From TrEMBL:
Coiled coil: none
Protein name: Cyclin
One of the record's GO molecular function terms: protein kinase binding
InterPro entries recorded: Cyclin-like_sf (IPR036915), Cyclin_PHO80-like (IPR013922)
Membrane spanning stretches: none
UniProt source species: Rhodosorus marinus
Amino acid sequence: MAVILELFDSFADFFSDSDGGKCPDVRAVVPAGRNDRALEAKRELIDALVETLNALVQRRSCIYIPTQGMDECMFYSNLGSSPQDRSTIRAVVETSVSKFMCSDAVFLMALIYMNRLERSNRYLLVNKFNVLRLFTASILVACKFAEDEIYRNSYYAEVSGLDLKLLNHLERTVLNELDFRMYVDANEYLAVAMV
């Protein structure tokens, strides 16, 4: 796997003014003059995220399924109950990278949050039934913590294919499980970036 750190060297100002309602693709958010390099960096980011999420899913031989009524149940898909549940990991990652309108560092922070969630709650161990919702909720929390400009949750819900009420619940659960500790120090960031 290529060193991911290079992808995050120039994440400042990748995205300029946003108009809120539109969902541009990756080509539309790359500043002029940097198209080839920036598009290649986005493709590498997408490939690295897909590879990482697939590896997280593959390493689970035992899955803890939460019982009805537990907050963690919301992370488990209901086999096609939302458009996202019918998507592949690659499709969700591509949509998130191109339409969440956030820096590349946010996606790395989301992976760090997912790791913290796994350590705090056995029902949030990444598996094929919860990976998409865990990833989406972790991106949302990371985006709100790290970015200056954010959108309403209705935008993120529309882009991700999740119901707004569900996305709000997922966000609250992630924040509570993280005990509202979203700060990622340089050592933790670099350790994940170098994988």
